[in-house]
Amino acid sequence: MRIAQDALARKIRHLADAEDFCVFNGVSHVLVEVDGSDKRWKHMPACPLIGIGGPTIAHSQFDVLVEDSDQATKICSAIEEHPIASATFVQLLRHNENSSIENALFAESLSFSTLQHSSEFRSWLATNNSSIPNEAIDEEIVLIDRSDGTLRITLNKPNRHNAWSAAMRDSLCEALVLAIEDPTVKAVEIRGVGPSFCSGGDLSEFGLAQDAGVAHVSRIVRNAGYLLESIREKVSVHVHGACIGAGIEVPAFASLVDSSEDAYFQLPEVQMGLVPGAGGTASILRRIGKHRMAWMGLTGETITAQTALSWGLIDKISA
Known about the structure:
- By secondary structure, the chain is an alpha/beta fold.
- Helices cover about 40% and strands about 15% of the residues.
């Protein structure tokens, strides 16, 4: 649906009016022609609200802003492919924008766990996940090295581009707990070996959760992002190559993200029928804001290290 800003303000005067703007009424998104006025609407529609009118527009009620019709077509087409995941994603960002880290992670976990049982995710799973082997673990997938007051943590599954598996998450959590409980650890450095820092969720494990409630509780109980957040001031993460999904969601909690020039960043979860599930709607949102994160998540587009630096997603680029 495409509508002028003042017309939308007239249409959404009551909570019941917002119900007209949802996927169940055939509306997967609302594209609003921004006129620069301060005309607002009292209630938000339950679908992505896209403002078209240029990058200088800072209207807080829009989920995402686009500069022109080409950008609008790109993002609207992506939303139409996964309307439920897209709607859930923007509603999650709206909620988390002013939430504490703890509350944001709680809401993200509920959203991710619920969508694991959605038709959009199951459709993606049936098409994309049938030929991915679940390899046995032959070596330590997280290495720990201690030198004086510095704890060095290394993701060590290079043959799978350090894919974010349950075992890697658990091992990283154990290392972070060590840093939390030992007051002599003054600095924590996290790296990955191989061609990528982390290529995102281990696809061989996607779809294994049979109980949304259990999935939610396990994600809350053992959450690497929350542990990292608790000691963020002494953590630096050094990223390179592919930094996809969890590969940037978790590092974004740190006080310093140091990137190589070849690093690239992507949030592909909405295109899978999901939302980010490793803490990104808390960590990345805090770094780059709702509009840019919505763009990354809804389009699934890759951004370069230079763009990430200009947005504040990373803090420096090193050789």
